[in-house]
Here is the input.
Amino acid sequence: MRRNEATPDEHRSPYVPNDQAHPWRRMVSIGDSFTEGIGDPIPGTADEHRGWADRVAEVLGAQVDDFAYANLAVRGKLIGQIVADQVEPALALAPDLITFSAGGNDVIRPGADPDAVAQQFEDAVARLSSQGATVVVFTGIDTSFTPVFRGIRGRVAIYNENIRAIADRYDAIVADQWALKEVQDPRFFDDDRLHYNALGHHEVARMVLRTLNVPNDLQPMQPDPLPNLTWREARTNDLVWARTHLVPWVLRRVRHQSSGDNVTAKRPEALPVIVEAPAQDRTAGPGHEA
Here is the structure.
């Protein structure tokens, strides 16, 4: 089914407004730290994270009475691991809405082949769409704004074009991070310069809801102004970042370890969404192993 055909499933199109409450009743999200919500910690918890997927589920769940949501994503996972460990469990939950983001951790590695990633990605999308669920896939962010990942911009662009082609073949919906200019700003990222912070996850949630044509009350959030740093202060910040985040990341690669080792899915069952009153929307402070 193509989006430009007149069909009873027009709600699947990101370009056709819904004339009623959204049609989805069971959302399952799979992927890596981007989908797990790393960078958007829940205050008062040891290692729990909210993230864009939780934020989207909260909006969807508030609009219908019988909505349920599961999140199987685990930080640090490569696409092969996500396909092997999450696709079938996701389908077993009988979702009618699936969000699938994978391959980011593969693409940022030296010598990565985005075409090889695309082959695994397409196999997963074929399987995820086989039971009739709406499938949402994500392009990667434009990394031109960050010196850390500017060098892989071309590789991300190839990855994105592959994602778009796969989405077209399987009638999946594309949530376009590359076009999300609002988050191409270091203030929307955590201190590790890899993951979105609460502001970034909030903006991604708004983008996903726009893509799904779901009306909502989420408003843009403005980050604090960038501080005026001297060259020496900026250099000190870079050295602290390298010691705190870059070196451990490199060591994990060398040791064939992952930040997701011994981590399990935060929400393995599809359960009703309980929206708590967030403190300042749990949003503070300035993307992706995921």
The beta strands are 26-30, 68-71, 97-100, 134-138, 173-175, 267-271. Residues 231-254 form the longest helix (24 residues).
